[in-house]
Amino acid sequence: MFNVKNIVFVIIMHSFIICNPFSYKGLFSLNSITTDDPPTDWPSYQSIITYIPTLSLKKKLKGPDIIDTELSYYFNVEYRANSFFNNFKEQLPLHRFWVRYTNEKLEARLGLQKIIFGPTQVLRPLSWFDTFDLRDPLGQTKGVDALRFKWFPLEYISFWSWLIHDNLDTTTSIGGRTELSSNIGEFGLTFHLDPSNTNQTIGQTQTFISNSHYRVAIDYRYDGAIGFWNESTRIKSEKSEIYISSIGADYTIPVANGVLLMAETMYIHSKYDNLNNDQNYSVVMTSLPIGILHSAMHIYRFDWSDKKIYHYLRWSSRFDTFSLNLILSINPNRNQYDVPENVLPKSLSGFGKDIQFVFAYNH
C-alpha cells in the first residue's frame, strides 16, 4: 500500500511552491469536567486544552478544475491530578493531511481525511470510519488514511469509492457507495471489504469484530412535514454475523422559534459461532433555539436490554468567533455494569453525574 503521508507531504510541499492563495485558521478549546464517579485512582476533575491549527491552499487550474490541500494538527494538553499530559511529546499529532482534485463531475482526495455518511444523527450504524458525536459541541471526528473518489455523472446520482490504509496491521480495505436522490427521498447503498484481523468496533455501536469481514448497508431519508430515515447494515466474517438497523424521525413544532423533536431506535443482533446476542437502544432529542445566540438541547437515551437510562442536557451560546457550552450528564454508575471496571473506558464522562464546561474559539 502507498505511504499516504509521504505522498501527500510531497504534493503539499509542491503546492506551497506553485500555489499563491492560502488560508490559515484554528480552533482553540478549553474543556473542564467534574464527576462523582471517576475511574479508580483518578481525580474527579480534569481540564483539557486543545488547539487545531489548519493551513489550506487552493490552486485554480484550467476551466472548473481545482486542486487544494489541507494540513492540520491536533495539539492536546490535559491537566489531571496536579500533573500535565500532552499528545505531542514524541511526534506532531496529525489531524488532517490531504490533497484534493475537483471538477464538475469528479472529486479525488488522498491523505488523512474525514469520511462520513448516513442520515442518522445519534444511533449511527453507518459510522464506520468516523467518531462524530452529536453531543460534542466541537463537532470533531478522527480521520482515516485513504484514497477516495466521488463521481457525479448526473445531478441526482453519485458514486463513491475508497481505499483505506490501516496503520496497525498495514492492511488495505476497499469499499464504495452509491447515493440516489428522487422525489420520494434519498437512497444510499454502501459496501466495504476489510481484510484486517485486529479487534475493532463497528462505528459507535460498541459491537466488536476481530476477523476479516465484509459490510453491506442500505440507507434512506425522506424530508417532508415529518423527516424519516433508516440505516440497516450487515457485517459478516468467517465466525460472526452482525445485523444493525436504526430508524428515526423528526418534527419541528411551530412554537416560539421552533422546537425540534427527534427520535431514533436501533436494534443490534450479533451472532458468534452459536452464541446470539440482542441489543436495543432508543433516544429522544429535544432542541430549542432561544433568541439568536442561545440554544438548549436534551437527549434521553434508554438501553432496553440492560434497562439503563442516560440524560444529556446542554446550553449553548454562540457568538461570531466563540461559543460557550454548559453540559450536564446523568448516566449509570460504573458499578452498574456487569463487567470489570478495568474494561470500561478511562474517562470522567459517561458515568455517574458530571458537569462539563466547553469554551471554543475559532480564528
Model description:
With 363 residues, the protein is mainly beta. 4% of the residues lie in helices and 60% in strands. The strands form two sheets. It has an 18-stranded antiparallel beta barrel. The longest helix has 15 residues, at 4-18. The two termini are 37 Å apart. The model has no long low-confidence stretch (mean pLDDT 90).
Principal-axes geometry comes out as: globular
| Strand residue content | over 45%
Helix and strand pattern: HEEEEEEEEEEEEEEEEEEEEEE
Mean pLDDT: 90
**Approximate helicity band:** under 10%
Distance between the amino and carboxyl termini: 37 Å
Rg value: 22 Å
Largest sheet properties:
18 strands, antiparallel, barrel
Total helices: the number is 1
User: What low-confidence regions span 5 or more consecutive residues with pLDDT below 50?
Assistant: none
Count of β-strands: 22
Return the structural class.
Answer: mainly beta
Write the layout of secondary structure elements.
Layout (H helix, E strand, L loop, with lengths): L3 H15 L3 E14 L9 E16 L5 E8 L1 E6 L2 E4 L7 E9 L3 E8 L30 E11 L2 E10 L4 E12 L2 E10 L5 E2 L6 E2 L3 E10 L4 E11 L2 E14 L5 E14 L2 E16 L3 E10 L4 E11 L3 E9 L22 E10 L1
Antiparallel strand pairs: 1-2, 1-22, 2-3, 2-4, 3-6, 4-5, 6-7, 7-8, 8-9, 9-10, 10-11, 11-14, 12-13, 14-15, 15-16, 16-17, 17-18, 18-19, 19-20, 20-21, 21-22
